[in-house]
Amino acid sequence: MAKTERANRHPDWRLTGKERFNYYLSDTGRLFGTAVFQTFMTSFLALRGVNLTLLAGVMLVLKMVDAVDDVVFGFLIDKLKITEWKVFKKLTGEGKYLPWYRLTFFLFPLFTIVFYVMPSGLPQWAKLSWFIVSYLLYDFSCTLNEVPMNSLIMTLTDNTDERSHIITIKGLITVIAAVVVGFALNFLVDPVAGPGFSFTSVSVVTMLICIGIMIPLVRNGKEYNTELKNTENEKSESYTLRDMWNCVRVNKYMAVYLLSSLIAGVTSTSAAVGSLISFYLFEGKTMITSIPVLIAFVPAIAINTQADKIAKRFGRRNSMILLGAVFGGMYILQYLAGYENIVVFIVLGTIAGLANSLRAIFMNFIAPDTIEYTRYKTGKDCAGIFYALNAFVTKAVGGVGASIGLFVMGLFGWHEVTAQSYEELLSMGMEVGQAAYQTPQAIQGMWVVYALIPGVGFLLSALILLFYKLKDKDAELMAKCNAGEISRKECEAQLSRKY
Question: The pTM is what?
């Protein structure tokens, strides 16, 4: 019945409703899991008494390693056909990216749990060692999960309308999940409005849930667009590391996209330390920073349902530039207004949240366009390497961004504390002479990290996108050519200019 209904409504679509739902559910599980790690990581380490300045340096070194392993794993995932390995064949099933996902989906939740069971009584060197080992394991496994999961958008279907539909719905679910998960996580650890659970207990339970909702895609997923058409290379799947580099070098539009995302990522210092800053700025109320997101929840859903129409009306690039400028501008106004006026803080934060939720969907639109461009120019399916690079940039929010935030807080004189939870920290007292006390200078440093740095960063990110010149209609024509719907000659005749 499902296939019949699908055929009547969208005869050229590949996936059934159930297949799309399993993809959405699994992607939500992946985002859910990584959100737990990134939301609590720096706050957890700060409450474990780890020196923030030293931690910032360690995290920068770890991101250098990350820069290498993301690219290497992206190459391996594109290059190796693990379905041909007898030892894995029964476990992985058929496909290009789903086999990798099936083989690795449970690893990053496992290593997240390992990180959050760090004993608080360890000496400083042991805490840092525990962090380094567990973070590297999490990071490697996260890349092995993210690259195939993101690359699936290219192989699930060869129909561009269906792909746009999937991206739109995926973006809506991401917004909903981000709000629900963010609110729930902050509520669970909030010592005033919530139960004040420890980071460890919350992380263990949520990781088990994460694994559970990723299983349907693991068991029933299927890819329908694993081979390129209209390419001069008969064996387009067989290519070398040099070919991979050429794919990256050719795609100047992906370079602009990644640079813009990188600037936004490394300056997203508020995302990494939001709950800790909220605890100190708003007298123990860690949920204050979640209120703007909650208010923007319903309006964001309403606006995001129109993302595809907005993209067609104003263009994906132009929409990204405007939304990035609004987001950055609201944060700068927030910094200038100060955190004492909670009403102004919430209003500006709500506007920023609306802009950012829609911006996230347009980011998902642009990435496949740049991949189609490279496939068209080179005849190589390099989706893996691009999503590996994109995974690195995305993780910069919780890596380099967190490192910068911690370093700045250290410069402003952060006082080291040790506690199992915010509830315990609150009981220590935040007045002068109490264990949880921070100086006015340290509080000002937190405010710089929360509002000023992200505001400036997103404005710069928006300016970089002015150099993105790939037109939406041209990218759609290239996608049709790559899927064999039109010939290269027909495609070239309809392009707005020569690429």
Answer: 0.69
